[in-house]
Write a structure and sequence with these properties.
Blueprint (H helix, E strand, L loop, with lengths): L12 H11 L10 H21 L3 H23 L3 E5 L6 H9 L5 E6 L1 H14 L6 E5 L11 H8 L6 E5 L8 H15 L5 E7 L9 H15 L10 H11 L3 E5 L20 E6 L1
Parallel strand pairs: 1-2, 1-4, 2-3, 4-5
Antiparallel strand pairs: 5-7, 6-7
Helix pairs in contact: 1-2, 7-9
The chain binds S-adenosylmethionine.
Length: 285
């Protein structure tokens, strides 16, 4: 990993999200961490102020995106016959473990992937808990690498079965990179997905929110996050049409933008009184 492709400053955020999943009964006990508990407690005042002042906060949006992504993945497995999932930037997400508990019997294979440091930690946790298997593994990947064993192309060629309908998920990754960088990754991903009988890419993203009543607070949060993670936190797209155009230019043939509001009362997700800022995107090739 060179300086240009070292984004490991982002990795600690996985402890925070991992603790959010655990606190809300969405995780497995073995994925809890001391770092997560400490970060969660440190974040309480900001989360509380957000809810009081704006009617929403980061935690609400995390839960919204996580449940919608779970739902879309379940649907792809049950209704479209997907049997291969790659979760890039998996962090301490419980999704792989929980999906394998439910769908291993249907022949599901689940590959979790993250930067080497986080991937090693997750691999150890799954091994210690006795839940990893030939069909459920954790491997090293770096979406910024192009010609190394950790590149998307090398991982796909080495680890995946080209005969299986495949879903790729990223959660909590996209907005840490500027548009040119993340668009380059999407273009390579769209091309890689065309080799499977079906290729679906599910991701969350936070669009440009100049219209939002809480824009000042949200901007302060964005700037703080950029500093803490040493990354170029960027909000992508200023309209739904721009999202569709952006993924189309990257090579996806269809794109649906899911707003949390359209899932209120349908899925068990928290309702915010202010418009939500998170979107879940369902792309196909
Ligand atoms: C906010 S966490 C999200 C973790 C998990 N998806 C979740 O929602 O709980 C961001 C994750 O992105 C991973 N990450 C950062 N840069 C990456 C890169 N270049 N390639 C792959 N993963 C990366 C970090 O290690 C971290 O696990």
């Amino acid at each position: 990993m060179s300086n240009d492709t070292d984004s490991s400053g982002i990795s600690f955020t996985a402890f925070y999200t991992g603790e959010v999943w655990r606190r809300h009964g969405l995780s497995a006990p073995f994925l809890s961490s001391m770092q997560g508990r400490a970060l969660y407690l440190a974040g309480r005042p900001v989360e509380w102020a957000g809810k009081m002042l704006l009617g929403m906060n980061n935690e609400i949006m995390l839960l919204q995106r996580h449940r919608i992504l779970d739902h879309l993945l379940e649907k792809a497995i049950l209704e479209e016959g997907v049997t291969q999932v790659v979760e890039i930037a998996c962090g301490l997400s419980p999704r792989g473990t929980l999906m394998m508990q439910r769908f291993a019997g249907r022949g599901l294979g689940y590959l979790e992937a993250d930067l080497p440091g986080m991937a090693a930690r997750k691999r150890q946790l799954l091994n210690d808990a006795g839940v990893s298997s030939a069909g459920h593994r954790v491997i090293d990947i770096n979406i910024l690498e192009k010609d190394t064993t950790e590149s998307l192309e090398a991982v796909f060629a080495r680890e995946l079965d080209p005969a299986r309908k495949t879903v790729v998920i990223t959660e909590g990754l996209i907005n840490y990179f500027d548009y040119a960088t993340i668009h380059g990754f999407w273009t390579r991903l769209a091309s890689a997905l065309t080799r499977f009988p079906a290729g679906i890419y599910l991701t969350d993203l936070y669009p440009d929110f100049r219209w939002h009543p809480g824009v000042r607070v949200a901007n302060a949060f964005k700037n703080g996050l950029a500093l803490a993670t040493r990354s170029s936190v960027t909000l992508h797209f200023d309209s739904e049409q721009a999202v569709v155009n952006g993924f189309c230019e990257a090579g996806f043939s269809s794109t649906r933008v899911h707003l949390p509001e359209s899932w209120y009362g349908v899925l068990d997700i928290p309702v915010s009184s202010a418009p939500s800022l998170v979107r879940v995107i369902e792309n196909r090739v």
